[in-house]
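Quick start: load a record and inspect it. Here is DUF4278 domain-containing protein:
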Amino acid sequence: MQLKYRGCSYDSNSTSAQVAPSNPTLIYRGVKYQQNSAAPQRATSQCQTLTYRGSVYFAC
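Running the structure step on this input writes:
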């Protein structure tokens, strides 16, 4: 995806975190509980036309 910041264009390098499946048993103040593992999420971009003091620019 082509991005622009302060007039400089660059390509986005999206990375995702790898999550190992696990379901650990945790203890807090003597009470056991289980915590769900985090699922990897992809970043979504939504381009918008914005205006600031009469200047129009795009936010992606």
